[in-house]
Amino acid sequence: MITAKEASLRNREICGLAPIIPVLVVDDAASARPLAEALVAGGLPALEVTLRTPAALDAIRAMADVPGGVVGAGTLVTPQDVKNAVAAGAKFGVSPGATDALVAACEDAGLPLLAGAATATEAMAMLEKGYDVLKFFPAEASGGAPALKAIGAPLPQIHFCPTGGVSLKNANDYLSLPNVLCAGGSWVAPADLVRDGKWDEIETLARDASKLER
Predict the structure, then answer these.
(1) CATH of region 4-207, choose from 1.10.3720.10, 3.40.50.1970, 3.20.20.70, 3.30.565.10
(2) In which pathway does it act (predicted)?
């Protein structure tokens, strides 16, 4: 079991590890460990593996053993997703939105949930449950940094990890906001570099992302 307050505290710790959480879509579980090692070596220890491919759970299992890494499961939608993620070794969960069933499943499983919210109403609903660290998703499609800044004015007690359309080009727009703890991005692990096993180049991308100011 985990309470909303405990989950929020844990999420603050995870978001505080680096300015960027890599959002990973892993097609081949064999690439998972070297990918995680490259990202961690580059200064990005918190890793979100999205449950969008058949290899995702095996990828989480492989990454869970990487020293210095903290692997989480993204795209949690159902209570069964939560069970599968925890069984695979995920230490935190990320969802595109939030339902009562999903939140309850994460609390029962002891999995800190970084739940998605795109509006003030959605953010307030999670705050009412005791969650004050959320994912702003889809960030760019929901108005980008200006929208998140506007939400922060009346709700300064809620902090976010914006994800969805965040890139090296606009990351600083988000990270400069007082209600942003970190951001999620996929650019640090391009599909072609992962496919070709260019771990040194991925480590370089990670290192550049780790130096972003917030």
Answers:
(1) 3.20.20.70
(2) Carbohydrate acid metabolism; 2-dehydro-3-deoxy-D-gluconate degradation; D-glyceraldehyde 3-phosphate and pyruvate from 2-dehydro-3-deoxy-D-gluconate: step 2/2
